[in-house]
Every structure is written in structure tokens, then in C-alpha cells.
Design a protein that fits this description.
By secondary structure, this protein is mainly alpha-helical. The protein has a domain of about 40 residues. About 85% of the residues lie in helices and about 0% in strands. It has three helices and no strands.
């Protein structure tokens, strides 16, 4: 059904949306979408940084147990 929507169909849909909502409403909506995408990317980056930090901490916390047994 949606496979045969071409460029003229998309332009018609864009014009109808523009007429219904107005230019100001659409621009503010797109601004909010942009802020949401930016926040999502920031969250993904922070999550990846936390995972890398946890891996580094886990790698440093590994100590051989044989040294503790020799001291006793």
C-alpha cells in the first residue's frame, strides 16, 4: 500500500501537514525532536563511558590470590 507513494504523494502530505499545523508549530516540534535526539546521543555516550570505566575498574581489581596465602 505504501510502496507506491512517490515524490508527488510525499509533497502533498507535507503541504497538508503544513496547512493543518502551521509553520510555527512545526518548527517548534522539530526543535523539540532535535533536543530529544541530542539528549539520546548524550545518554548513549555516557552509558558507553560508564561501561568502559567499569571494565577498567574490574581489570584493576583482579589480584592474584597466591600472594595472600604466602603471607599467612
Amino acid at each position: 500500500m505504501l510502496n507506491n507513494i512517490g515524490l508527488p504523494g510525499l509533497l502533498l502530505i507535507a503541504v497538508v501537514v503544513l496547512v493543518l499545523f502551521g509553520r510555527g508549530k512545526i518548527s517548534s516540534l522539530m526543535g523539540e525532536v532535535g533536543k530529544g535526539i541530542t539528549a539520546f546521543k548524550k545518554g548513549v555516550k555516557e552509558s558507553n563511558d560508564e561501561i568502559e570505566e567499569a571494565k577498567d575498574v574490574a581489570a584493576r581489581d583482579v589480584t592474584p590470590e597466591t600472594e595472600d596465602k604466602d603471607k599467612v
